[in-house]
Design a protein that fits this description.
Chains A, B: Residues 11-108 form the HTH hxlR-type domain. Two copies of one chain form a homodimer. In chain A, 43% of the residues lie in helices and 19% in strands. Chain A is of the alpha+beta class and 154 residues long. In chain A, a hairpin with a 4-residue loop joins strand 3 (112-116) and strand 4 (121-122). The longest helix of chain A is centred in the middle third of the chain and has 14 residues, at 90-103. Strand 5 of chain A pairs antiparallel with strand 5 of chain B. Chain A binds a DNA duplex (30 and 30 nucleotides) through helix 3 and helix 4.
DNA sequence: TTTGACAGTTCTATTTTAGAACTATAGCCT
DNA sequence: AGGCTATAGTTCTAAAATAGAACTGTCAAA
């Protein structure tokens, strides 16, 4: 597998893995969703090495997930803010959190609870069909080759 | 970070990353959802090294994501089948596929199209609130410490 | 002038992954 | 019987990624 061109594979999962498919990137993004924005803050809350953090932030900026925004002119300092593309990763992270809550829990109970401001209740994220609104299950989904796959293969 | 105990962290995202947080594991699971079950089939469709495939399958079995089921007695041969815990990873994979479709697409169009058998239509997966059914956005969610976090910290 | 905060970069050691070759069991063909 | 093929791995060495610590540069405040 050539990881350097994974983002051009004719597979949307591969392309997503090219961006978030390593152990640190999703943890960095979790911090972003918890309003962490600065290098030192990421580093101390994650205990990631400074080298790796620097690499990952650059990569996320390159892919348009984060924007590097100056917050101080002298000395020049930057913070990292989620773009819309980055905010759209939210369902991925919530799906992972929910799976962890369901299947990897221990006797201590859930680490975090999520409140939906619109309805005021504690909730779980649920994945539904955009057309009929029903809850999705793997066995009810049929996969077809789309135009991108036919072009890539044929 | 001690990756060997990541599945015991007081964070459901970390615990999920402990299982699926590397580049190959999610690609292997994609094949599982496409009904691939056997060692040779995984290896040839993914071009993963046999060594790594063997490691990853063992890990997925250890975590209860796959079951190793004999399909031939002499010689002893096994295939790998998703458990319910594994099937429940579907929303994660669909969320990643959807994000890739939306943000990493190219001029060739989508590689795969998904049909919901229940309603017969091509669909996108959408994440909603379990309580009110509205579409979820990061900014409408407020996070509280749950019992697992308080026990871990306090 | 010295100290400290912040945002990195650079270096070496360890761990992980890639790539290829090898092992083992058994059916089938001649 | 002897050799070929299929399947499911294991073992080996080289290359790449990550960990961990120290170092750099800028500026403000004491």
């Amino acid at each position: 597998m050539k990881w350097d061109t994974l983002d051009e594979e004719p597979c949307s999962l591969s392309r997503t893995i090219a961006v978030v498919g390593d152990r640190w990137t999703l943890l960095i993004l979790r911090e972003c969703f918890l309003r962490v924005r600065r290098f030192e803050a990421f580093q101390s809350s994650l205990q990631i090495t400074r080298h790796l953090l620097s690499e990952r932030l650059k990569k996320l900026v390159r892919f348009g997930i984060l924007r590097r925004v100056p917050y101080s002119e002298a000395p020049k300092r930057y913070e990292y803010i989620l773009t819309q593309k980055g905010l759209d990763l939210y369902p991925i992270i919530m799906a992972m959190v929910h799976w962890g809550d369901t299947h990897m829990g221990d006797e201590r109970g859930r680490p975090l609870l999520h409140e939906h401001k619109n309805c005021g209740k504690l909730f779980d994220p649920v994945m539904v069909c955009s057309e009929c609104g029903e809850v999705l299950h793997a066995k009810q989904v049929h996969v077809h080759a789309g135009p991108g796959q036919r072009e890539a293969v044929g």
